Amino acid sequence: MIKSFIIGGLALSYSGLAIAAGAPADLGTLAQSGYLISSPNPTSYPVHKSWKELNSMMVDVTVFNRMVGDIEEVICGADQNKSVLIVGEPSDTYRYIFSKFATKIAASGCEGLAHVEANINKIEAGHSYVGQVEAYWADNILRPVDGKDAVLYFSSLSHLMGVGSHSNDSDGIEKEYASNFTSGRMRTIAYMDKYEYDFYSKNRLSYVLSSFARKITIENIATQDVDQLVKAYLRVLSPGFILNDELSSYLYKTTNYYQPNVSEPQRTLTVLKSLIRSAGALPVETRQKEVSIETPHPYTPSYTMNEVISEPTATSISLSFDSFKTFDSSDRLLVLGAQGQNLETFYGDKGAFTTKAYPTSALTLKFTSNDKDESDGFKIAKVTTTHLGTHVFNRVEVRRAIMEVAQVPRWMIDRDYNVVRDLRNKLDADVVGCMESKNDIERLAKAGYVGGRTDEKPVGSVMLVGPTGTGKSFIAKVMSTAMDMKLVTIDMTSYRTPESFDRFMDIMATNLVLYPYAIYLFEEIDKADPQILDRLYFMVDEGVFYDKFQRPLFARGSFVMMTTNAAENVLLNGNPNDPTVRVKVNEALRAMFRPSFLNRFDAISLFFPFTNAEYQQLATILINKKIKKVRETFDWHLAIDEDSYKYVAVKGRSARYGARPMERLVENVVTVGLAEYQLQIENLEFGAHVSINKHRDGENLFRVEALNRGVNYTVIPDINDGSKLMSTQFARGSMMRKLSSAFEADRMFDDN
After folding, report:
1. For residue 726, what pLDDT is reported?
2. Which of 186, 379, 451, 598 could cross-link 322 (Cys pair, CB 3.0–4.6 Å)?
3. Which residue positions in the chain have pLDDT lower than 70?
4. Whether residue 670 is found in the same domain as residue 593
5. Per-residue confidence (pLDDT) for residue 167, from 0 to 100
6. How far apart are CA 470 and CA 657, in angstroms?
7. Residue-level pLDDT at 11
């Protein structure tokens, strides 16, 4: 019976018969859209390299046998729907299961199957018009396996969801996929991580998940199962590298501590691969053995020889001939590899020579002559073999590999506590004021990184409270640089609505998996939606962040910093030595945050406006940084006189806006001067020496000089310092006074 159906506007026909044994799949087409895991015809259609290595590793591994048996019942059974959905923790574990099933001795109903992993990117790439994805699916995926002896694998079913959807149809190719296997047209196995499974099982695409004949949940991988995989990996894929039982146990336990957010066996095998790479190539040993492999001299017509040279531990074999002479190409010596492949053919008069090193552990020598002629023949006098030595891992190597994979800073791995010892000096050199915050950060760094912590909380947690521009964010950046730690900055103004909750959860989950040892800076935490604060509450209190799937992600290696402008007016008008300021700040914080949230921080650091002495220090730091950047970028040697430093220190002050007006003033003084010189005189070449000096003839007048030529220019100080809207000469009339008053009160102007 012939049935018709339509995919993407294409009318196709197919036999209504269920999958019929003995019909070979079109592997040529499938190989263009995926990767062969196992092939019934490996000569014409070879298995992809990555799967070939994994297949050889999984031969003797029994960890997943029970799950493979469950898969076999469905794929090899008599039911029309031959589909299995595998669900588990986000990891590469599914690859081991795919490989084990694909290479298992075929049960009845599964003889001669081809196993192919579909490439979802290939299905989607370049198909932007309506119906193109469906047409590609019909021609390149469905047709080659339709009713054929093949199993189609998807390594991430979630990536298939929505592929090919368009304005005319909100469903993607997953609709065709589900109908194809439920109708018995293909065998298929797909994987989806359990958190995505929970998500899709509650939305309109849940029908795809329920279409599978069986769902198999990957069980937790026990330590003994991880150990079996590790031993198989070393035995098959990295022979010569030795990890004893004591170190294996240390590897599993320590990896779990440093990477609790990554599931097994992925976390351990990732460390193992890094450990092998770090160890480098194994030492090579060359051995020579005298032999006497020869033909009669001369050999007789129709003479044959079949000689095997085998060195099981060898990585290569080469042959040294004392002599070689045959009649012509009809009398020839074949050199065959361990798999019977022809490596080289010799004939004619070659004399004494040595062959190249053949990458094999066994050679078969086959010599045949014709039935008419004879010649001197050959003699092999020496066989040279190369053998890999061994590398026995030690505790230091294992520990280092674990911490490097977890992206623990190098100084922590080496226990070089000079980084913590020098932290305060680096903060003082680059960060102006905020002594309280420096004290808190220094104390928490010492306790968290050196003191031998025993709790599960983050290394440190600090709330940085103060007006804008006083260094709250900057101190986190300086700490990150000084301690060689990644700084993850999250702007909480982007997560102020309930609708932004899922986005925030995704961002945090991704970062904690990738960067468990980082400084996390949450900017303007007071802007965040309350339910986000609830999640951060547990992160600060317990060192655990629960993502949107309630998966616990450990944050004990993180250093948490949060900024807020709360209590800004209190600190603008307060005195650091006044004990009542802290009380007023706490009152302002409690009006914005729950007391239980505030109580979870190790420290709440207050930032006050800069003093006159601190403004002078700030001017020096900002100008010197600018000089350094100009030298690094343009190779200009810039000299700035002392009066210019004093000018910036005085004119750049802003109690309300902190350091930023001074940063703008430095740009006005330096970059405007460099620009005026090049616009009015000539271009500055790399290596030029330039001087900028405060001119005595005007309050805002400067002079820039290079190559004995110069130009005067005027700097307009930035009036946006928060203290006034514009200069007093313009602030006349009721409207101007009202504007100035509004600005000083830090509120919007209202003309009512």
Report:
1. 37
2. 379
3. 1-22, 126-130, 166-169, 718-752
4. no
5. 62
6. 8
7. 38
Domain-located, residue 727: no
Per-residue pLDDT of 306-333, as tens digits, reads 999 999 989 999 999 999 999 888 899 9
Pairing of strands 689-694, 637-640: parallel
For tokens 């079913």, the residue is 157
Average pLDDT, the chain: 86
* Bond prior to 298 in cis (omega within 30° of 0): yes
Residue 559 token pair: 């250093």
pLDDT of residue 747: 41
Burial class (CB in 10 A: 0-12, 13-18, 19+), 86: buried
Q: State which residues form the domain around 262.
A: 223-283+393-397
**Distances 260 to 264, 400, 401 between C-alpha atoms, Å:** 9, 17, 16
Where b means 16+ CB within 10 Å and e means fewer, 194-217 reads ebbbebbeeeebeebbebbbbebe
Virtual torsion, Cα 589, 590, 593, 599, nearest 10 deg: 90
Which contiguous run of DSSP H or E holds residue 192? strand 187-193
Q: Is 663 exposed, middle or buried (0-12, 13-18, 19+ CB in 10 A)?
A: middle
The set of residues, in sequence order, having a beta carbon less than 8 Å from that of 576 and lying 6+ positions away, is: 435, 436, 606, 608
Q: What pLDDT shows up at residue 130?
A: 67
Where b means 16+ CB within 10 Å and e means fewer, 411-435 reads: bbbeeeeebbeebbeebeebbbbbb
Same domain, 211 and 63: yes
Verify that 567 and 424 share a domain, yes or no.
yes
Helix/strand/coil (H/E/C) assignment for every residue in 520-531:
EEEECHHHCCHH
Provide the greatest CA pair distance for the chain.
Answer: 124
State whether 84 and 174 are in the same domain. yes
Of 187, 217, 247, at which residue does a domain stop? 217
246 and 158, same domain (yes or no): no
Domain assignment of residue 539, yes or no = yes
Which of these three, 370, 397, 424, is where a domain ends?
Answer: 397
| Residue 645 neighbours by CB under 8 Å, 6+ apart | 616, 619, 620, 623
